[in-house]
Design goal:
Elements (H helix, E strand, L loop, with lengths): L9 E4 L3 H12 L5 E4 L7 H6 L6 E4 L4 H5 L3 E4 L8 H8 L3 E4 H6 L6 E5 L4 H16 L2 E5 L5 H6 L6 E5 L2 H4 L9 E4 L13 H9 L10 E5 L11 E6 L7 E5 L2 E6 L2 E6 L8 H16 L4 H10 L8 E6 L2 E5 L6 H9 L5 E5 L18 E6 L4 H8 L5 E3 L3 H11 L5 E4 L12 H13 L2
Parallel strand pairs: 1-2, 1-4, 2-3, 4-5, 6-8, 6-9, 7-8, 9-10, 10-11, 11-12, 16-20, 17-18, 17-20, 18-19
Antiparallel strand pairs: 12-13, 13-14, 15-16
Helix pairs in contact: 6-10, 6-11, 14-15
């Protein structure tokens, strides 16, 4: 896409990090954009400071219908509900509506590796980025992971590969987005406060393969049900099933079979613990072999990668009680995976903004759960759904939940903060929530 392909009247919905990056890019292209955000101007001081000196129009503190209807192109930031009434009305009037991922990808010529799934996206995206940086030098790692793709487009420095974490929300708006390698790690119940049912959520994830061609590659978890096989070459990874081609786990080893050659890696060379991370390693190592990366480079990268904050992160041990921060677990399956990775008795701290999924799957691990301490908006529904099956306590906030869990603990227990819910009832994001947990634990 070139400057002459862009209309003059462009509306950016949302002034978060993505919105700021979009305004910078559009200004660089000689366009005076308009931005709209539900937040008031004084709530957006830091964002506005970043684009000081750039000419743009703005509506803050609420949306105006005319801003949407008088635009030729609307670019939506991730997380903005595509069922926003003004967006729907603008579409009916023939206004082009797209997402930042789709828009930015049209300016990218480098090969894109895209990672989606309910859980493990950030870990796999970061680990692939580390391996590829070791092998090829400059790579861009971004997308839903925190660095919008449009930031790469705006920058002067180009990479050999663009490696992106992509969410179901971002995939909703794609039309031509084509990753040369697309990964689907897993799909379990999530975001049912956004989607009408699990099938609609699954369909949004499967869109990652929509525009791939025969020469591209799809990497898929073997246990994921595909409605139709992608047009691209499909390689699977599996924890339990031996595969003729792909990656699988066998007797403490990760085995990759590709191009008629078999490669083996001791699971123990990675410091990441838990079978969920074994799956993440399978996917990452398979992608590395797809692109012909040497075994020594892969071993060095995965042995040095110690994981990310707020994902089954060791915080502290007090008198034999271990505290684990898993604030990134914003759905039930993520919490279930965390519990599966721990052999000791667990006092589970959970709760937050309810995503309207079922909490009952956690009961498959109830033999490990010594007690459940709940807080936040969802605590009543969680207690109602599973409180009769495990010993359950309710507290008014995270600080008191941590203190209660510590009171209940004995030497040898693990206090696992793995909320099963998003953070937006009490915190800005999962990272702020995780930092608060660590602060409270540090003060005990």
């Amino acid at each position: 896409m070139k400057r002459e392909d862009l209309p003059e009247r462009i509306l950016v919905v949302g002034l978060g990090r993505t919105g700021v990056a979009l305004i910078r890019f559009l200004a660089k292209m000689g366009i005076r954009p308009k931005v709209t955000d539900l937040k008031k101007e004084d709530e957006l001081e830091s964002q506005l400071e970043e684009i000081r000196g750039i000419e743009f129009d703005a509506t803050f503190g609420g949306h105006r219908k005319e801003d949407f209807l008088e635009s030729d192109l609307i670019i939506v930031s991730p997380g903005v509900d595509m069922n926003l009434p003004y967006l729907l009305e603008a579409k009916k009037m023939g206004v082009k509506v797209t997402g930042e991922l789709e828009f930015a990808s049209r300016f990218v010529d480098e090969p894109i590796i895209a990672v989606t799934g309910t859980n493990g996206k950030t870990t796999v995206t970061t680990l692939i980025g580390k391996i590829f940086k070791e092998a090829f030098g400059d790579v861009f790692v971004g997308g839903n992971i925190g660095n919008p793709l449009i930031e790469y487009v705006t920058g002067e420095k180009k990479a050999s590969f663009v490696i992106l974490e992509v969410s179901s929300f971002q995939l909703e708006t794609i039309e031509k987005f084509r990753p040369r390698c697309a990964l689907l790690l897993n799909v379990t119940e999530d975001h049912l406060d956004r989607y009408k049912d699990f099938c609609e959520y699954l369909e949004s994830k499967l869109k990652i393969f929509e525009n791939q061609k025969e020469e591209d590659v799809a990497v898929v978890n073997r246990k994921t049900t595909l409605k139709n096989r992608p047009k691209s070459k499909t390689l699977f990874f599996s924890l339990n099933e031996r595969l003729e081609e792909g990656a699988f786990f066998r007797e403490g080893e990760i085995v990759v079979r590709i191009g008629g050659t078999e490669y083996k890696y001791k699971r123990s060379i990675s410091p990441l613990f838990g079978m969920h991370n074994t799956e993440n390693l399978l996917a990452s190592i398979l992608v590395a072999h797809i692109y012909g990366i040497e075994r020594d480079v892969i071993v060095k990268s995965i042995s040095e990668f110690k994981g990310l904050p707020h994902r089954t992160e060791f915080v502290r041990e007090i008198d034999g009680v271990v505290f684990i921060n898993d604030s990134k677990a914003t759905n039930v399956d993520a919490t279930k995976r965390a519990i599966e990775s721990i052999e000791k008795k667990i006092i589970l701290i959970a709760g937050g903004k309810d995503k309207m999924g079922s909490y009952r799957p956690i009961l498959s691990e109830k033999r490990k759960i010594k007690a459940l301490v709940l807080f936040g908006e969802s605590k009543e529904r969680i207690k109602k759904e599973i409180g009769d099956s495990v010993t359950c306590f309710m507290e008014i906030d995270l600080d008191r939940a941590v203190k209660k869990a510590y009171e209940l603990s004995e030497k040898g227990d693990v206090i696992l903060f793995s909320p099963m819910c998003s953070s937006f009832d009490m915190f800005k994001n999962y990272a702020e929530r995780g930092e608060r947990f660590k602060q409270v634990v540090a003060a005990l």
